[in-house]
Amino acid sequence: MIQFILVLFIVILETVILVININDVKVSSFYEFLHNPNKLGIYLGYILSVILLPFVSVASLNVIKSIRDIYRSLAVKSLRFNSIEVAIKYMNILITMLPLALLLMVTGIIFRLYIFTLFSLVPLIFLGYIIVKPFADVYEHSKNIENELKWFLILMIVTESVRANIGFLIDKLKRTPILSAITKELIVVNRDYLLYLPSYIDSFIHRARHTPNSRLSSIFTGYASRLRSGGDIVSWLRSKLGEELTISEFSAKLYSERISNIFGQIMLALYALLPLVAISTYALNITAVILLNTVATPLLVFIMYTIRPKSLDVFPMKHLFITLTVMVLSSLLLYAFIGSTSLAIGWVLALILSHKYRSILKEISILEKDCIEIMKLMVELRRNGYDVAKAIEYIISTNTINETTKRKLRLALTMLHQGVSLTETSMKIPTHSFLFKFTLFTLGLVHECGGGDPEVFQVVYEYMNRISTLQNTIKKISTLFDIFALVNTVLIVWIWKTLMPLHASLSYMGIGSVFGVDINMLYLLIYSSLLGYTMVSSTLRIGLPITEFRSIAFLAIGTLLPLLL
């Protein structure tokens, strides 16, 4: 594998040397080769090296076997067992791509289309993707496990509290995988128990050696030892859940500090200070500031999305991509005709298309609030002798929860009366809220095990409330920055209005003025700053660059202020 990468590097180095010295070896036509055999030799030697070296090295160094071995060794950790066939398919594409890409590159050099020389990087980039992919799969699986771990521990506490065994929970999660990453791990544990190992204890210990997440490995090992020794499993699980929540709280605090100290200052500089400096002095060019905001916003959104604690709620990413594409394309296409107004039109179109997302966010917010209330009521209703089904019927009849939640609970009860378990209804009822699915699944576990002790619901309620508070804290971080963004818009317009008389007097005297910012550029600066800020702020709050309904206020203020002040 290293030899193959070295061969590709040599080929790229040859290309760079040839491009640097292109004036000495360039040809105007193929007929020139007949009169200059030296150039013919240089190009023939280069063509042979760029085509034959990578191709022969793939065959002789057995690169496909090396790639396959990497994928096989890491598939045990990522649990993506179809990735080996994918790797072989990618390698076959790479072999086919090499001659084509390199021939296009050589043709570009001969005809002085130097952009074609970039094709030499395509095979190397493709190979890099093939090599990195299994490692990325392992990392992604580990991060998904971390996001699901606290919810898995709650389910284990419920399972042990109602005297059910781990096999019961594994069976339910196999049928209803609300925790997809951990369900994959448990399926492997169950498979090893059924086929290879004598007990779940040995199966958990064996899987603990291979799982990519150290915290899950610790839980598997500790759980197996408690099963073997016969200790108090529930108390141990509650202590582990407490540790996980402490880690989550620390991560949220660290995230908040990063946002406040680092990204808050970056956002303040990009969307507030730089526009102010550009509008009030000649130290910065306004066009450069607008371009900087345009380039920096997607990068900031990506970084925010990467470091933000992930939610398990489900969002249709395809619709988000369409919304952002429409906003960008409409702004670019209309700019030549209507100037800065095109950005406002693109913003409005994005707001219209984002209606679906705003409905999803509203539903998630309602369901999260009501799920905690449902668990709280379950504690009292179980103490009064209600079973889970009767308790749900009673909750529906009260006015303590939203009508949206009532409709979904009625559907769950209908399915339950038709013979579908509550655990399975959690995936059959259409909703984007993970917490609602989790609540139904938990109620189903307790219901199928005889109703459970009221203290089980008390424990679940306490932990759900704690996790919800933690997530809401993250969403409130951007409030201070919202105020900064609006105040900054007022300052930009006020400074522009103040400098307009100065610009007029200088223009009257025939002196060029750097303060001559027309209304079109002012609006473009305001819109680009506010829109960039709202995209980053939405990613900070909810994890995705959605044009929220509150951005209407930003758009309206940015549009009306230059007219009113």
Automatic annotation (TrEMBL):
Keyword Transmembrane helix assigned: yes
Transmembrane spans: 5-22, 42-64, 98-131, 151-170, 262-282, 288-307, 319-338, 477-496, 508-530
Metal-binding found in the keyword field: no
Assigned keywords, A-Z: Membrane, Transmembrane, Transmembrane helix
Origin superkingdom: Archaea
UniProt name for this protein: Type II secretion system protein GspF domain-containing protein
Organism: Ignisphaera aggregans
